Amino acid sequence: MIHLSGVVDEDVSIRPAEPADLSELKELDAAVFEHLAYPYFVLRQFFDIFTGWWMVAVHPDGLRGYSLGVPTFDRGRAWLLGLGVRPEFQGRGYGRSLTISSLRKLADVGVRDVHLTVEPGNRRAISLYRELGFSVETLAREYFGPGEDRLIMIAQL
Length: 157
Known about the structure:
CATH architecture: 3-Layer(aba) Sandwich
GO molecular function: acyltransferase activity, transferring groups other than amino-acyl groups
Radius of gyration: 15 Å
Pfam families: Acetyltransf_1
Mean pLDDT: 91
Helix content: 25-40%
Largest sheet: 7 strands, mixed
Organism: Actinocrispum wychmicini
InterPro entries: Acyl_CoA_acyltransferase (IPR016181), GNAT_dom (IPR000182), MshD_Acetyltransferase (IPR050276)
Domain N-acetyltransferase: 12-157
CATH superfamily: Gcn5-related N-acetyltransferase (GNAT)
Structural class: alpha+beta
Number of domains: 1
Shape: globular
Distance between the termini: 6 Å
């Protein structure tokens, strides 16, 4: 069971993404995920299809991070498709706040299981996900292609 409490930093608000955020989301995604960053057209389509599910951490100086948690058609399960925090702001609680925000939205519509993928060497992210109630389901070899293994993690809401 996931513990859904958390504190959002005072200078940051969490809200659904807006069309005006798209170019900054592209830049942020590239800074975090480098060669695996989503192309702009995919970000645009995600925005159109998943309106309201894409959450952003907004600071007066710009976006600090985002999360995208999306339920399946029957809303019995969901996938956390993305969580990214600008490298210079990692470790400040933005990722936790964003993830909790997405998990709350998913729980509110009846989602029971949330899945995600994470790079097996990303200790910081794995630690965060474990603290929020996720456990490793399996290691998926070449999930994103050659050399791009991922852990698949799952949590019950």
